[in-house]
What we know:
Number of helices: 20
Shape: globular
CATH topology of the domain at 14-164: Rossmann fold
Strand content: 5-15%
Number of strands: 14
Largest sheet: 7 strands, mixed
CATH architecture of the domain at 14-164: 3-Layer(aba) Sandwich
Helix content: 40-55%
Distance between the termini: 43 Å
Strand order of the largest sheet: 2-1-3-4-5-6-7
CATH superfamily of the domain at 14-164: Cobalamin-binding domain
Amino acid sequence: MREAALPLRGIPPIVLATPAPITHRTAEENLGLGYLASILRSKGANVQIIDGWLGGLTSDEIVDSIARLPVPLWIGFSCYRSNMARAIEVMQLLGQRGLQTPTIAGGYGPTFHPDEFLNAGFDVVVLGEAEETVCELSEHFAFGKLDLSDISGISYKHDGKIVRSGRRPAVANLDAIPFPSRDTIRASLERRSAVHVLSSRGCAAHCTFCSIVAFAKVSHGSHWRQRSIEKFVDELEQVSRLGATCFKVIDDSLIEPPRDELWCRELADDIQSRGLRVRLRGSIRADRVTDEAIRQLKRAGFFAFSCGIENYSESALKRMAKSASVDQNLQALDVFEKHGIYVQAGHILFDHGTTMEELRENHRRMSDYVWTISKGIFSEMYAAEGTPFTRLLRKRNLIDANDDGTGNRNYRLADEDVVQAYTGLKRWHKSHLRLYDKAIDAISAPKALEDEELVEFHALATELRRHDLAFMELLLDSVESGAHDVDGLVDAQVAGNKIKYQTLATRVDHAYASAGLVYDADANPFFG
Length: 528
């Protein structure tokens, strides 16, 4: 980490804000804001965090919160793709209120859509990781010591033209970054949300649809970097003293070389030697799963994983450039089941090249592994800006529209029978979408639930999954028989299952009440 040439003490406060994303998920903390606040505070800066998601704040309320503070040196917005429009709205509302202070946007949204932010009125967009960049920007705005052209990893306007500075090296030594500030931990604990931590950044895979590697390529350096076990467990211990027991390890890929089974054992040993009783949820690639690794990680406290299975067809996995084969996917799920691990099995059912045979293969394997946690029977490959998949679609002239409001590019499917299946499954899932999103949020987020609460929510999600798969089989049979009234089939099945789903909705409501949870998310934006 570069040391700031000048201390940041005594300068006006810096505001770091994030508007709530448009999402069907309930609020979780923004660890990126915590890291940025921490590095700035280590230089002496006064930093205020305003988390619109955890705080349930509207755009006007975020503006009110900022207006009550002394005039900031600059205001930074952390943006997912799903809160880009709201961040731009807040920035423009600040201008309408007469607050003339520099505004900076960073995160995945601005990194892949910098021109949109700059043309809307933002002064600077940070591209990629931001810890070193925000320190240099603070020097620029406080002292004029650095010109914007001297700062790597940003985009800005000069004489009306958009300028992009040179690429910044990614932080190589993650142990050198101070632990993130925990300004919002009380709000997380009150919602029974898992507290976020990370032990690594990036991913070594090259999936065509994924923004993670595309984000890493914005900077120089390794696409995957790790913290030491000692530092990671130090943070778990520190945050545990604040009352946290359930942690979401937000690594994109927990196990990458040089991490191996020995690393998993050493992690478990360190956690147990300190007497920590923590519950951990992480993300792991199927081809990194071994029986011994999962046995040791469970000993460390892991009770759940997100695993990007994505598809049960070899041809579909090849199109996605997945590193795991179907056999490796199945072996990973068998290991998870053996050790009693909850698994959110990321799944992508449709892409531009999906075939009916692939849909049949997926139905069969999804039925075999119905216990996995899924976001629903309908899923499609997300076409995000900056990914190889979106570049391929453009090259083949398959993109229909610029954006569906979530940063996703709409595109066409090649097979007409698949289009019917796509239409039917999407229409079916949309009919009970709110129920499905609510039922799985508690275990996919996950919430800090007790064992018996996890069992109850998992049983509800599994029951919904079985109903989905029964409908999918009926739909595929209908499409392959040459029937064309897909809408009529869906409507008839929705009507015939109405009482069943009403009963399930009542049971989900009861589970929420018993656990003291609140589902206050938006309507699912992917089904608008």
